[in-house]
Amino acid sequence: MPVSRRSVLAGLAAMAATPSFAASRINAVASTAMIADLVRQIGGTGVEVRALMGPGVDPHAYRQTRSDIVDMTRADTVFWHGLYLEAQMEEFLLDLSRKRPVHAVAESVDQSLLIGSEDYEDRFDPHIWMDPELWVKCVPAVVRALTTLRPKGKEMFEANAAAFIAEAEALSIYSRDVLGAVRPEARVLLTAHDAFGYFGAAYDFEVLGIQGISTESEAGLNRIGTLVDMLVARQLPAVFVETSVSDRNIRALIEGAAAQGHSVSIGGSLFSDAMGPEGTYEGTWLGMIDHNVTTIARALGADVPATGRLGLLKGAA
């Protein structure tokens, strides 16, 4: 197996550290799996990271448990996304930040690059991990946070960060090529909630969500009816479910289109607010995006490999 593939599975940050440094690894807690993966890739052998939210968990609705509170208060540092993604946890995390090192890494990104939220006034769309070129802008905040705790690890953290950014840039190039193979008129992504705004902006896709940016927003019958009419009028072939959101509304769309004589299929299951199982390629941010890009492109008619950029996907639907 080529080194680049093995390094993805093992973790880009699997860099050798001195015994004394490895023995004093930073104990970090991260809210989402995407944040945990970012910290793990940059921290390498210098960190031990636990994600509060696993596969299929919706961060918009997640509330901290008693064990989460214990873990966060005992950790050397806590990383969360911010931008109101963890809406139900925000008050607790802000309070904890007055007592412990707590970092909202996405809030370090220049606001001029962010998309405004339609659900909440003076808020932004938090789903920046959907665009590799935007996601890497969180890297410096993680490097700074880890270096503050372990100055001796600075060189390793910076080297790991550079390796991660290089992989993200390669993924961005691949994504543009693969999604560029979809016919312009077919570049419509309809999902359960509006988590793909940055994806659409990056790859020139029209993105439609039944619910808003937050899964806490309601999807009314009028909204579903409007989308059904659009599916039929434009003869769109596929819609997509999400691993962390109920497929009830998506199936209502399919049934509504069928009632009007138009057949719509489920193009596949996408990772939106959560990644795949830990220990799998899809359980890394690189694998998550590779899966999404491959699944979307294939479902909308592009002839691309089912196993993705590195041949590591199990086979996108």
How is the topology of this model organized?
Blueprint: H1 3-10, H2 19-23, E1 26-30, H3 33-43, E2 47-51, H4 66-74, E3 77-80, H5 90-96, E4 102-104, H6 132-135, H7 139-149, H8 154-180, E5 188-193, H9 197-203, E6 206-211, H10 221-234, E7 238-242, H11 248-259, E8 265-270, H12 285-299
Parallel strand pairs: 1-2, 1-3, 3-4, 5-6, 7-8
Please, could you describe this protein's structure?
The protein is 41% helix and 13% strand. 47% of the residues are buried. It has helices at 3-10, 19-23, 33-43, 66-74, 90-96, 132-135, 139-149, 154-180, 197-203, 221-234, 248-259, 285-299, and strands spanning 26-30, 47-51, 77-80, 102-104, 188-193, 206-211, 238-242, 265-270. The protein contains twelve helices and eight strands. With 317 residues, the protein is α/β, with parallel strands linked by helices. It is globular.
Quick overview of this protein structure:
With 317 residues, the chain is an alpha/beta fold. The protein contains 12 helices and 8 strands. The chain folds into 2 domains: 3-173, Rossmann fold (3-Layer(aba) Sandwich); 183-299, Nitrogenase molybdenum iron protein domain (Rossmann fold), CATH 3.40.50.
Features:
317 residues, alpha/beta, Rossmann fold, 2 domains, four-stranded parallel β-sheet, two-stranded parallel sheet, 12 helices, disordered N terminus
